[in-house]
Design goal:
alpha/beta; binds zinc ion; 5 helices; about 30% helix; three-stranded parallel sheet; globular
Length: about 150
């Protein structure tokens, strides 16, 4: 859902109901995973579409978001946007940041650059640092649970 939200915000011809058009250049880049104004930060063990970490063979990929992943985000947050629109970074799951990683993001959360949206997705926001939570605007999303027959 957060990806769909980001895609609709980056779309160059949104339909006015909050949906991306799926046909413009921005939608094309987004769908190919190379929109210049979009970054997704997640544990190595998580592929872009995965909800749960994959079981790796050999050396286990990290299940945490590493501090250098957040540091690597900083140049992206500082340069001007390529398309003159929003710049969006999606961090998921946000509770995969340990305390030092979360602290590395804190400055950006406190004073986000202009036209920048930081989306933190968490299924367990209580596990986020209070300093992170207090700098975010919370939106609760409930899954639609099928009715029992
Ligand atoms: Zn579009």
């Amino acid at each position: 859902m957060a990806r769909a939200f980001a895609r609709s915000l980056l779309c160059e011809r949104p339909d006015g109901r909050g949906e991306a058009c799926g046909a413009c250049a921005a939608c094309g880049w987004f769908d190919q995973g190379n929109h210049p104004d979009y970054r997704q930060v997640q544990p190595e063990a998580l592929e872009p579409g995965d909800e749960e970490p994959r079981r790796g063979e050999g050396a286990a990929p990290s299940r945490q978001i590493r501090i250098d992943q957040v540091r690597d985000l900083q140049p992206f947050l500082r340069v001007g946007t390529h398309r003159g629109g929003l710049r969006i970074a999606l961090i998921r799951p946000a509770e995969a940041m340990n305390a030092s990683t979360a602290n590395a993001l804190l400055k950006s959360l406190e004073e986000p650059p202009e036209r920048t949206l930081l989306l933190l997705v968490s299924s367990d926001p209580q596990r986020l640092l209070p300093t992170v939570r207090s700098r975010c605007q919370g939106v609760t999303v409930f899954p639609r649970v099928p009715r029992r027959r």
